[in-house]
Specification:
This protein has a single domain (4-186), classed as Peptidyl-tRNA hydrolase (Rossmann fold). It is built from 6 helices and 7 strands; from the N terminus they run βαβββαββαβααα. It has helices spanning 22-33, 71-80, 114-123, 144-148, 154-177, 179-186; strands at residues 4-7, 39-41, 46-53, 56-63, 88-94, 102-106, 129-134. With 191 residues, it is α/β, with parallel strands linked by helices. The chain has a 7-stranded mixed sheet with strand order 2-3-4-1-5-7-6. Helix 1 (22-33) crosses helix 5 and helix 5 runs antiparallel to helix 6 (179-186).
Length: 191
């Protein structure tokens, strides 16, 4: 297997349209592009599918656990698929980027993101690739934990499909072109 792309979020209908679940939305998009459906992978407690990106087989998956305990499912699936941590791509919501921006990086800290913190602990390294999907900062004095569990605003929903597609394109770009080339392309200003 040439790689694993995991989208973070929380399970269940309550969280389906929330900012914290943008990673799962991106995985749904990647699966849909190849005509695949995610199915339960019991050994890893994920929903997963094998898709083709640039002719290569890649597993796309979402943990069936809550965000803060994503590490076990991610590391279990990576081990099951014989994917090294360096070939794991994690798609997640990012408070420190404005809504609509997508940035790519390898490694680094968790930035207070408990899902990333748990994945780093479970994989034993922070050196996996992150597709950081900007959701912006909470308005006023709203708590960040409250903000990420709220649905997107009406204005954001009008742009949400474009953001999901951009993040999916970025994840595919990492697989087909490598991280540095994908960074150069996706970090460049758009007209």
């Amino acid at each position: 297997m040439s790689g694993l792309i995991v989208g973070l979020g929380n399970p269940g209908d309550t969280y389906a349209g929330t900012r914290h679940n943008i990673g799962q939305m991106v995985i749904d998009e990647l699966a849909a592009r190849s005509g695949s459906k995610l199915s339960v992978h019991k050994k890893s407690r994920t929903r997963a599918a094998t898709v083709r990106i640039g002719g290569e087989p890649v597993v796309v998956a979402v943990p069936m656990s809550y965000m803060n305990v994503s590490g076990g499912p991610v590391s279990s699936l990576a081990a099951y698929q014989s994917v090294a941590p360096a070939d794991v791509i994690v798609v997640h919501d990012e408070l420190d980027l404005p809504f609509g921006q997508v940035k790519l990086k390898r490694g680094g800290g968790s930035g207070g993101h408990n899902g990333l913190k748990d994945i780093t602990k479970a994989l034993g390294t922070p050196d996996y690739v992150r597709v950081r999907v900007g959701i912006g900062r909470p308005p006023g004095s709203m708590d960040a934990a409250t903000f990420v569990l709220k649905p997107f605003s009406g204005a954001e929903r009008k742009e949400l499909d474009l953001l999901i597609a951009l993040a999916a394109d970025a994840a595919e770009g990492v697989v087909t072109d490598g991280l540095e080339a994908a960074q150069q392309y996706f970090h460049s200003p758009r007209p």
